[in-house]
Hints:
alpha/beta, Rossmann fold, Alpha-Beta Plaits, 2 domains, two-stranded antiparallel ribbon, 10 helices, 32% helix, elongated
Amino acid sequence: xxxxxxxxxxxxxxxxxxxxxxxxxxxxxxxxxxxxxxxxxxxxxxxxxxxxxxxxxxxxxxxxxxxxxxxxxxxxxxxxxxxxxxxxxxxxxxxxxxxxxxxxxxxxxxxxxxxxxxxxxxxxxxxxxxxxxxxxxxxxxxxxxxxxxxxxxxxxxxxxxxxxxxxxxxxxxxxxxxxxxxxxxxxxxxxxxxxxxxxxxxxxxxxxxxxxxxxxxxxxxxxxxxxxxxxxxxxxxxxxxxxxxxxxxxxxxxxxxxxxxxxxxxxxxxxxxxxxxxxxxxx
Length: 283
C-alpha cells in the first residue's frame, strides 16, 4: 500500500507524521519511507539512513547550431513553455523554462538543434534499518521544478511494503506528481484559519484525483472548531489529533521521534495505520 502524507501548506507537520508513522508500524510491517519534498528534504535528519545508491537526474536542453539555423521560428512555435525565442541574432534558449521534451529538436527542419544533459537533481536510496527502506529526492539549487526528481524517486516504490511518501507542501504540480498512483492520502492540517484554507485546497486535489483520504489535525488545542465543522459538512474523516504538547515539540527539536519517547503514541500511530488499511480494504 502506498500512502502519501501532504498538506496545503508548509509547516503543518507532514514530516513529523510520516516519520513517526513509519517508525511505529515498522514493528509489524516492512516499510519504505520516501522523502519527495525534493526542495527541502528533511526525513533523513530523524534517522541518519545508510545510503547505498545515488543517481543523478538529467534534463536534456536544446543547443542551437547558429550556422544551420535559419531562424524560421518553428521551434519557438512548437514549444508550449516559451523556452525558445527567435531574434534577429538567433534563437535564445531560456533554460529555466525548458521541460526537456525534445519537441524543438524534432520539428526543426534544418536539424540545427541538438541536446546536452544538465543535472537538475539526484535520488538517494538506502536503508534506515532492517525493517525500513529509505529514499529521497534532492533538487539542485536554483532549479525551478522537482517533478522529474520526484518521478524518478517513485520508480523505486516497492509495493510489497507499506510505502509512506512525505510529499512537498502546497498544491503545485510536484504534489500532483507525488499523488499519482497512491492508494491513500493523509492530509495534515493545523487548527487555524490558514490551516483550514489550505486544507480545502488539498481536499480539492485528492478528490479530483479520486484518492481516498483522511485528515490529521496537528498541534490541536481544542479551541478552534472550524476544522471539525468543515470535516462534518464535507463528510471527511478526522483520523487523529496530535495535541499542542511541549514534550512533542521538544522531541522534534532534538531530532527525535515522539513515538519513541512516548510509547502510548506508538500504539496510537499503529491504530492510525489500521484505520487507513481498513478504509482502503487492506488487511
